[in-house]
Amino acid sequence: MKNQQEINKELVIEAFDTLFNKRNYAAAEKFWSPNYIQHSAVVPAGRDGLFNLVKNAPEEFRWEQGVIMADKDMVMIHSRYSGRGTPKNMIGVDILKIKDGVFVEHWDVLQDEAAKEDSNGGFPMFGTSFPKSSDRQPAATPLTIAQAREIVWPLYDALNQPAKKDVDALLAKAAHADYHSYHTNEDFLTRDQLAGVLKNLGVTVPDLRWEIKDIQTNGDQVIVRGEATGTPISEFWGAKPTGKGFKTMALDIFTVKHGKLASCYHIENWMTALQQMST
Q: CA of 156: how far to CAs of 80, 123, 171, 263, in Å?
């Protein structure tokens, strides 16, 4: 007879293989609680955050099992994640809390896997051998201006008279499902939340135009300098409509992963826009 710790270890191995290698998301749902709590600097919150991350990973993405240990309702597993489209594999220690046969909480510690020439300790981080040079993933090719423009364009298309556009479809074309739009260094909107903001903006400023004035790339980042114009017909950022329009500058710094937008840090000069409307 297997004890509960052995059952829990087998559960983790089957679950990870189902999600990461087989990518059978429907089957994987039975292992992760809908209220799954994720403690990670890398993986977005909740079960949907984890699943969307895997869905957006390259086809070559793979998980390998290392050492696994269990204690009461906790399981700790040492893993290798390869085929991530990055120069190095990732080595992780995942700690999972199990309740009623599903994962309810998770913690992780993640590191890039060192090749032999990069290892100060002189021993492999995973298994009994160092990764071969062929196992190390090539760095992503830097984006060209043309590629960057093609990737970001659907988002800016959604910003031009949003009330007349299928905003949800355009954002889905441009950005991953777990896209984060940061308006401070910590606070962000999800893709769906951003779609709601743009739809409301389209009602408030029916003639809104958002022009790309300059676009630059830096590795997997796209920097866009834009210009927003429009004339609000209802209350806008707390200001009553005056019949006057605005013209203001915006800066967006996007990060691209696997051909779509993963995140953006942005700033718009709305103070100047409000001053233009009131003078």
A: 38, 49, 9, 15
pTM (predicted TM-score): 0.54
The structural domains of the chain, with segments of one domain joined by +, span 4-135, 145-278
User: What's the CATH class of domain 4-135?
Assistant: alpha beta
- In this prediction, residue 137 has a pLDDT band, given cuts at 50, 70 and 90, of low
Q: What is the pLDDT of residues 28-81, one digit of tens each?
A: 999 999 999 989 877 888 888 899 888 877 778 899 999 999 999 999 999 999
What radius of gyration, in Å, describes the C-alpha atoms of the chain?
23
* Contact between residue 12 and residue 77 where contact means Cβ atoms under 8 Å apart: yes
C-alpha–C-alpha distance, residues 209 and 90, integer Å: 43
Q: Give the single-character DSSP code of 245.
A: -
Choose among 235, 270, 251: nearest CA to 182. 251
Element (H or E) spanning 9, and its range?
Answer: helix 4-16
Q: What is the CATH number of domain 145-278?
A: 3.10.450.50
Alpha-carbon distance of 126 to 78, in angstroms, equals 8
Which residue, 264, 158, 139, is CA-closest to 202? 158
Is the Cβ–Cβ distance between 175 and 188 less than 8 Å?
A: no
